[in-house]
């Protein structure tokens, strides 16, 4: 039925828009995902069913499928999308939020995060993954194969850190679970799981490692990330300086 095919969503806070309707996206902008969503008006708090279309860098909403002029849009550049815990008192509400400008900039904004609700867990996960791909698209589609400095600078929009989230997460897990593991960084991990984790991080997900996570898979993921860096961890421009420092240290010790 139509009701089961429609994805329900609520959006709290003012949508960024001009006094008039936003211009129609170009015909060349392919729809990456589309579906019925519910949004909640920030003033009246009543629900509105609208047709949502995810395109290059915006999430547009229309009165219905036949409309060509959007009623509004959510700009996605620089945003962060997070899955939210389900409220036990409100079963069936699968929530996620779009945070404008990243979490650290929320206090400086005149509007809050856009809170959305899907009608199923799978539907919510599909929307989150699709939106994350759009957010990361200007960055080349993910962190694998990107320059280390660029990744760190980009991820600082979502909080201070000295290394990419993937590196921090892998290293922390290996320190806690794998230092006594035989064959660490030598034995291969599960190739299909390594690929799944790579795709997840490339989409901006934050997959969690637990006690059931294979330590060799995490080590293989870290090796893959380092192997695909366009430039080594020690930059080419610093290579001779590094060798000089190593030589001085060697001569001092021996």
From TrEMBL:
- Please name the GO terms of the biological process aspect recorded for this protein, alphabetically: regulation of small GTPase mediated signal transduction; signal transduction
Coiled-coil ranges per UniProt = none
Q: Is Acetylation included in the keywords of this UniProt record?
A: no
SMART domains per the UniProt record, alphabetical:
PH (SM00233), RhoGAP (SM00324)
According to the UniProt entry, its GO molecular function terms are:
GTPase activator activity
Keyword Cytoplasm belongs to the record: no
Listed GO cellular component terms? focal adhesion
Its keywords, alphabetically, are:
GTPase activation
* Gene3D superfamilies assigned to the protein according to its UniProt record, in alphabetical order: Pleckstrin-homology domain (PH domain)/Phosphotyrosine-binding domain (PTB), Rho GTPase activation protein
- Composition skew (Polar residues), residue ranges: 16-26
Q: List the InterPro entries.
A: PH-like_dom_sf, PH_domain, Rho_GTPase_activation_prot, RhoGAP, RhoGAP_dom
Region annotated Disordered, chain positions: 1-28
Domain of life of the native organism: Eukaryota
Domain Rho-GAP, chain residue ranges per copy: 146-254
- The residues covered by the PH domain are 30-136
PANTHER family named in the record: RHO GTPASE-ACTIVATING PROTEIN 22, SPERMATHECAL PHYSIOLOGY VARIANT
Descriptive protein name: Rho GTPase activating protein 22
What's the source species for this entry? Electrophorus electricus (Electric eel)
Lineage, top ranks:
Eukaryota, Metazoa, Chordata, Craniata, Vertebrata
Q: Name the gene that codes for it.
A: ARHGAP22
């Amino acid at each position: 039925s139509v009701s089961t095919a429609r994805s329900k969503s609520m959006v709290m806070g003012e949508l960024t828009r001009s006094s008039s309707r936003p211009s129609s996206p170009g015909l060349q902008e392919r729809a990456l995902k589309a579906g019925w969503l519910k949004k909640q008006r920030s003033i009246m708090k009543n629900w509105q069913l609208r047709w949502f279309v995810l395109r290059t860098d915006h999430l547009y909403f229309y009165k219905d499928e036949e409309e060509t002029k959007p009623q509004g849009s959510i700009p996605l550049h620089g945003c962060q999308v997070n899955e939210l815990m389900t409220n036990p008192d409100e079963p069936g509400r699968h929530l996620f939020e779009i945070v404008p400008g990243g979490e650290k900039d929320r206090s400086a904004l005149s509007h809050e995060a856009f809170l959305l609700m899907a009608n199923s867990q799978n539907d919510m996960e599909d929307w989150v993954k699709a939106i994350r791909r759009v957010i990361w698209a200007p960055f080349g589609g993910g962190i694998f194969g990107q320059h280390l400095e660029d990744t760190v600078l980009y991820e600082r929009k979502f909080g201070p850190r000295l290394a990419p989230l993937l590196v921090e997460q892998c290293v922390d897990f290996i320190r806690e679970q794998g230092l006594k593991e035989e064959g660490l960084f030598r034995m291969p991990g599960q190739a299909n799981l390594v690929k799944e984790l790579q795709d997840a991080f490339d989409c901006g997900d934050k997959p969690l490692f637990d006690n059931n996570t294979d330590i060799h898979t995490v080590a293989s993921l870290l090796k893959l990330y380092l192997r695909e860096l366009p430039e080594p961890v020690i930059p080419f421009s610093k290579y001779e300086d590094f060798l000089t420092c190593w030589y001085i240290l060697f001569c001092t010790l021996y």
